[in-house]
Amino acid sequence: MTNFFIEDSSFRDPSGFLFYQDNVLYRQINKSYKEQYEFLIESDLYEELVKKELMISHEEVKIENKNNDGFIVIKPEVIPFISYPYEWSFSQLKDAALLTIEIQKIAKKHHMMLKDASSYNIQFKNGKPIFIDTLSFEKYIEGEPWKGYKQFCQHFFAPLALMSHKDIRLSQLLRIYIDGIPLDLTSELLPMRTKTAFSLLTHIHAHAKSQKHYEGKKIDVKKNKISSRSLDGVIESLHSGIKKMNWKPEGTEWGNYYSDTNYSDISFNEKKKIILEFLEKHNPKNVWDLGSNTGIFSRIASELDIFTVSFDIDPVAVEKNYRECVNKQETKILPLLIDLANPSSSIGWSNNERMSFMNRGPADLVMALALIHHLVISNNVPLSKLAKFFSKICNFLVIEFIPKTDSQISRLLVTREDIFLDYTKENFELEFKKFFNIIQTTDIIDSERTMYIMEKMKK
Amino acid sequence: MLSLEFILLTTFLGESFISKTFGYIDPGSGSMVIQMIVGALVGAGIAIKVYWYKLKEKFFGISKKND
């Protein structure tokens, strides 16, 4: 008996859909897309994009079509961890935007175009963005405008402009607006000075006005063609506009965390040693490092060739982490932005289009170093709830307990009453033992902290 | 100021349009118009640039390559 279900995120495009069969991901290409798909292959566009590692590869498989609309089934290359634009740092979103533009340029040389420009068509693999939607291409008809232009502006241009010219935290608007940030809202939020920059004036401000002016009106594209050269000009203008957008990662709470802690070199190195020894011994399939800051401890795992997702709440830390990945050409680490007090939820149609943080687990091993005191003290999460949470997201847990006497916690309690009477080492062990077997406990030399390695109890 | 410029540009393009676009996403009429405007402006910019280089070459004998 085969297990079959359709992936919830691929219902919009009638060209085909993704499905799982016996836990393997496939894509059915419908007859309506046959001509375009054959052109994608015959024009060598597919080959060029795959060769340059700009798009995922696929193989055509002999699996029965899932309905009468089917033309062929393909098996796409697997992405190790699905992430979303509202979880990316500034440079991750910028690199995804530049990739979309690059693909559009290459496609046009092969007489094809991107028929959409959704940021959800990009994922991260081997430290780089990669295009995942094989069905996004259509033949270029001379004189036609780029149909994905509006979507590109909403999915990439608007959030990047808001992040670089207004406030980095505005990337979170992408969590609310699944089809990108509305341009009229972007135009209102951006400072006046952005109207003096040609790309922002045209692609955001005038674009928003144009949308309002032509709302509900039809235009005749036959009568008002855009020449191939003008279209190249539009793409080039988007390209240079995106390239000019920058953001300097500085000025948040965690940016200088490691130079601002009371760790001594001895305890820091000991912590690293404990993690390294355990990882070498157990060789987990994957690691999630929660509260990873700039990824120092994540890299112990990724440098052992273990795929590691490095989560942090701070956009500065995630940005620095990603830039290090790019500079060192690291392939096994994926930095992402996450607020554990309010992690990404399932969003979109029927609450199923984009997966929640929890749905993308469990990880084989989770690291929670110098993390839980923030969740307990700053977010009032009881230890019992923390233990239950971790039991849902991992098999193995490397977790650090920091007592109240540590200066890091004293700092958190400066402005508030200490109502956390049950935040003790004894209670911590008691609550976690309800879900985990503690397999190793190490008091870290030169500190008051303790490292635990735990394994989830088998049911 | 922006509105005035915009109205001038859109008037230049005209609005007596009837749509015939395909695709599963709505490209948006306003978005298509702005593409035409940007395309025209960037195209004109490139033409001016090329013309400027030609002028420079003609009068001062400075070719683009020597810049």
In short:
The complex is a heterodimer of chains A (459) and B (67). Chain A has 459 residues and is an alpha/beta fold.
Q: What report would you give on this structure?
A:
The complex is a heterodimer of chains A (459) and B (67). Chain A is 36% helix and 19% strand. Chain A has helices at residues 34-42, 45-51, 90-109, 149-165, 173-176, 183-189, 198-213, 228-244, 265-282, 298-302, 315-327, 372-378, 383-393, 407-413, 425-432, and strands spanning 4-6, 16-21, 24-30, 58-61, 70-76, 112-114, 122-125, 128-131, 137-139, 286-290, 307-312, 333-337, 363-368, 394-401, 436-443, 450-456. Chain A has a seven-stranded mixed sheet, sandwiched between helices. A five-stranded antiparallel sheet of chain A has the order 1-2-3-5-4, with no helix packed on it. A two-stranded antiparallel ribbon of chain A has the order 6-9. In chain A, helix 11 links the parallel strand 11 and strand 12. In chain A, helix 3 runs antiparallel to helix 4 and helix 3 (90-109) runs antiparallel to helix 8 (228-244). The longest helix of chain A has 20 residues, at 90-109. Chain A is globular and about 75 Å long. Chain B has 67 residues and is mainly alpha-helical. The longest helix of chain B has 32 residues, at 29-60. Chain B has helices at residues 2-13, 29-60. In chain B, 22% of the residues are buried. At the A-B interface, helix 4, helix 7 and helix 8 of A face helix 1 and helix 2 of B.
